[in-house]
Specification:
Length: 394
């Protein structure tokens, strides 16, 4: 049997991580893998996470199974964090998932179950796992223009023109904040126009919100998702706790389905539970318990929000420093977009050969499409990156 298997394409980011590890240079810089790093290069465990785990260690009396949807308290806490009353609670069905990736997978499974002929529309570019999972599931897929390589901002005219081809029942995947891989986000008016178009076309939005709190703050980063939820009859939301709680390896995520009414919510919940059962039975619980403990314990929540702000402001500071250094070296403002992007990533808009030049000459590791993880920098390595960018002729 096994001899009939075909070789699968290697994950580019995982390959990049391996090449970085094998590079003997001591001044190399890893801007590829999408995890937050502090100025020492470590991905720390947040203070509130450690405190919550201590509480669980002392109080948790069982490791028995949770329900198919996960702990209801986790769903309530995350619905509150992401939506904060934007829609009535009885309209929201939810299931815990193995990370944000699991939430995306379950969302696509639900779409395929409900409407197998639907086309899923993705921004160009988007997170590589989006099209990968869609192709694996055999679903229809289309792209809409999003990133303007010249301005390094959003090509909104192109986006709206492409979404004009939406058919009723199609699904539009939107990044709730901190667009991955570009860092370029829609503004408030653009969000409103996009929502109006999707609703007029009878399409369904699927919001991927993986970086809430990493851009402009917890509330500001959720604003677009709340606008979407309140502005349409139905939508799906996939949220991740990996980044903002720093619990990457705990695989903690949630899928929410916003229905037209309570009856439809019940039907959606039944089907989401069914899909969990088929794919992994019960979702992982430890990370979900940690998140729930933090969000429902006032002193822990306050400390978590404070540390998350430290993380966000560190990344904003690195963005400003890099943009300023590139302005100084290039004697132009063509890199100012880096300071305006939000989240962990920016796509600097250059060619794979120039990315390779920076790797070979300077030990700068970024994805070949020029996506770089801002959190992989510190104040000492920013000037090294800036010089490498200029020397490569970006």
């Amino acid at each position: 049997m096994l001899e009939h298997l075909k070789e699968q394409p290697a994950d580019k980011i995982l390959m990049l991580m391996q090449t970085f590890r094998e590079d003997p240079r001591t001044d190399k810089i890893d801007l590829g893998v999408g995890v937050y790093k502090d100025p020492t290069g470590n991905t720390p465990v947040m203070r509130a996470v450690k405190a919550a785990e201590e509480i669980l260690l002392e109080t948790q009396a069982t490791k028995s199974y949770v329900g198919l949807a996960g702990d209801p308290a986790f769903s309530d806490a995350m619905i509150g964090l992401v939506l904060d009353g934007a829609v009535a609670r009885e309209r929201v069905a939810a299931v815990a998932t193995p990370g944000g990736t699991g939430a995306i997978r379950q969302a696509l499974e639900l779409i395929r179950l409900a409407s197998p002929e639907a086309t899923v529309w993705l921004s160009a570019p988007t997170w590589p796992n989006h099209p990968s999972i869609i192709k694996y599931l055999g679903m229809k897929m289309a792209e809409y223009r999003y990133f303007d390589e010249a301005t390094r901002g959003v090509d909104f005219d192109g986006m709206i023109a492409d979404l004009g081809a939406l058919k009723e029942g199609d699904v539009v995947l939107l990044h709730g904040c901190c667009h991955n891989p570009t860092g370029a986000n829609l503004n408030d008016e653009q969000w409103k126009e996009t929502i109006a178009l999707i609703k007029a076309k009878g399409a369904v939005p699927l919001v991927d919100i993986a970086y809430q709190g990493f851009g402009d703050g917890l509330e500001a980063d959720a604003a677009a998702t709340r606008l979407v939820a309140a502005g349409v009859d139905e939508c799906l939301i996939a949220a991740s706790c990996s980044k903002n709680f720093g619990i990457y390896r705990e695989r903690t995520g949630i899928l929410m389905a916003i229905a037209r009414d309570a009856g439809q919510t019940k039907l959606a919940q039944q089907n989401m539970n069914f899909l969990n059962r088929q794919n992994f039975s019960f979702p992982p619980d430890h990370g979900a318990r940690v998140v729930t403990t933090i969000l429902t314990t006032p002193e822990l929540r306050a400390d978590w929000e404070a540390e998350l702000e430290e993380v966000r402001n560190t990344m904003l500071g690195l963005r400003t420093q890099l943009a300023d250094e590139l302005r100084r070296l290039s004697n132009s403002d063509r890199f100012d977009f880096i300071a305006h992007h939000r989240g962990m990533f920016s796509r600097i808009g250059t060619t794979p050969d120039k990315v390779e030049t920076m790797r070979a000459n300077n030990g700068i590791y970024m994805v070949s499409d020029s996506r770089m993880n801002i959190a992989g920098l510190n104040t000492g390595t920013v000037p090294l990156l800036a010089k490498a960018i200029i020397d490569a002729g970006v």
